[in-house]
Amino acid sequence: MTLETRWSGVRSIARIALRDADVPTPVAKLAGISRAVGSEVWIKHDDRTSDLYGGNKIRKLEWLLGRARERGARAVLTSGVVGSNHVLATGVHAGALGLRVHAVVGPRPDGPGVLDNIRAALARGVVFEPASSYAGMVGRSTEVFARLARSGDRPLVIAPGGSSPRGVLGYADAGLELACQIREGRMPIPDAIFAAAGTGGTVAGIALGLALAGLPIPVVGARVTPPPFSNRTWIAGLVRGGLRLLRKADPAVPDVASVATRLIELDLDSLGAGYGLPTPAGARALALAHDLESLHLEPTYTAKTLASLLLRARLRKGTYLFWHTYSSAPLAPLLADAPPIPPSLAALVGTGSAQAAPG
Questions:
Q1: Nearest to 140 by CA among 122, 127, 125, 153
Q2: 281-304: per-residue pLDDT in tens?
């Protein structure tokens, strides 16, 4: 079941299919981790949304790039920290549709995969627009948008992380997908679902989809960014915005905004010292995932999320679902012809603070 099959009017909202791997993405029990913590731990493999470059951004981009095509855009403008997974995903998938991708990027702490993400995005033709600070990114985005508009590119703006009401629809769809897998007996009903809360769209969408499916499972967002993105008011606004789009397209979609919002819980302790900065609990979770399950996590989002789940699973025995949002597709093909990193971008790596913009 999808949004489009359950409510036919939703088909009027433009969407482009980008997922070329496992659809729906599989669920599986993490037997080794389950034994280690004494609770039943499952995984939703959104790391496998695309064989080219996957992760959670792909579901959002299906609806966002559908809007770009509908509007006749020739370019998209997005933003995030330098080395952003979202910027790379946008470069890969928007570029494949013939759209030019411009990305306003700000500083960030160094970390695993940051430099490879930059090089891979450069190889896919992403035009980076550096900003020296988070505050400076707003003005830089305005400047770049005006320049693209003057050139006739009719740019579509994509929010950091793809987290806008339209982007939320990708994870509302995913929430319905999970509900179907549970009802088909592919996994038991979890006591809680854990996903990274960066720009908020993934958590908002999952909760909205579950509410629409009539399956009120708590969704715990492991906060990995500072405000303004990782707070309940922002995420509730995304829920309401996504639902408004659905109900405008098909009035038969029920008004479940309050139900969905009540499902959301934020783990405010996951962030640690700041965005992009590892935590001891995250490091332990990352090692456990690798050693017991051969899972590839990263310290900024998924390791902190799994750490949040593991703490809950040890304290309260039950069944828990880890929503894996980091692409497991190998970067090597994207790096084959990657150029060197220009000094203007290299200078942004390692200079970010705990208040760096997410994405």
A1: 127
A2: 999 999 999 999 999 999 999 999
Cα 177–chain centre separation: 16
User: What are 65-96's pLDDT values in tens digits?
Assistant: 999 999 999 999 999 999 999 999 999 999 99
| Rounded Cα–Cα distance for residues 245 and 256 (Å) | 13
Strand ranges (E), the chain:
27-29, 40-45, 75-81, 100-106, 127-130, 156-157, 192-197, 219-223, 264-267, 319-324
**What contacts 235, CB < 8 A, 6 or more positions away?**
197, 200, 203, 204, 221, 261, 264, 266
Closest CA to 29 of 18, 15, 19, 44: 44
Q: CA-CA distances (angstroms) from residue 39 to 24, 195, 292, 310, 313?
A: 25, 18, 15, 9, 6
Phi, psi angles (nearest 5°) of residue 130: -70, 145
Task: Give the residue among 174, 231, 180 at the shortest CA–CA distance from 58.
Answer: 174
User: Which residue type occupies 280?
Assistant: P
For the chain, what are the domain ranges? Answer: 3-56+163-324, 61-162+333-346
Q: Which helix (H) or strand (E) holds 171?
A: helix 165-183
Residue range 200-212: mean pLDDT, rounded: 98
Mean pLDDT, residues 137-159 taken together: 95
Which CATH architecture is the domain 3-56+163-324 placed in?
3-Layer(aba) Sandwich (3.40)
Q: Is the pTM of this model over 0.90?
A: yes
CATH of domain 61-162+333-346: 3.40.50.1100
Structure tokens at 165: 């009401």
